[in-house]
Amino acid sequence: MALARELQGVLVHEFGNPLQSVAVLVELAHDSLAARGPDEAGGVEREAQRLAKALDATQRLRELIHRSSGLRTLLDGRKSGTWGDLLDQIVGLLGPRLERLRVTIERDTATIDGFALAPGPRGEACLALVLDASEQIRSQRLGRTALVLGADAQSLRVGLRPEGGEPVAVAPGAIARAHALLGADASACSPEGLAATLRVAP
Q1: pLDDT at residue 165, as a whole number
Q2: Does residue 48 sit in the same domain as residue 103?
Q3: What's residue 189's pLDDT?
Q4: Are 115 and 94 within one domain?
Q5: Which residues of the chain fall short of a pLDDT of 70?
Q6: Which residues, at least 6 apart from 98, have a Cβ–Cβ distance to it below 8 Å?
Q7: Residues 66-75: pLDDT tens digits?
Q8: 120 in the same domain as 164
Q9: Are residues 116 and 194 in the same domain?
Q10: CATH of the domain at 125
């Protein structure tokens, strides 16, 4: 995981500035072509449409790099934040994928947005739960589903609530991976919600 973050940092640095330059140049070319008027000098309108699409794609890549960098600084502890900040970064980074899978993320307590995120494995465990639960929603074809997350000083809580259906248990493999990141073994499930509580190692 540390190596992945290091590589990510290199990619952010290497691609960030060139992508910004490309975005500016494409935008200038697009504006220049659009100012000539429709079909002037042949096919200008068509080229302007293509450049507009290229500009949109470039801006999406820039936003992806920005979100990825923000998430990495929170996970590394190089930037202070809350659990709410972490979830916002995760949603920002994985937003298109979550939308395709019809996944929404809900906080199950009001305090999660203000709960301080200390450096350590809990941020990585939270990210792993979001990724694994999203894959479970896709593979089990649960449809539109709320991924309910909570946190306190001793634990993470996670549950799946399909729209119009009964709560679904989080896959054992997802729980096992999060537990491994947390360095803990114990878990408990509440029968009424099938929500797993993952204990943080002392």
Answers
A1: 84
A2: no
A3: 42
A4: yes
A5: 1-15, 37-44, 77, 108-112, 118-120, 153, 184-202
A6: 91, 104, 105, 134
A7: 777 777 777 7
A8: yes
A9: yes
A10: 3.30.565.10
Domain that holds residue 148: 83-199
pLDDT for the residue numbered 43 = 61
For 122-150, write each residue's pLDDT tens digit: 788 888 888 888 889 989 998 999 888 87
**How many distinct structural domains can be found in the chain?**
2
* 191 in the same domain as 117: yes
Amino acid (one-letter) located at 53 = K
Distances in whole angstroms, Cα of residue 95 to Cα of each of 74, 108, 160, 180:
18, 20, 18, 26
Residues 29 and 96 both lie in one domain = no
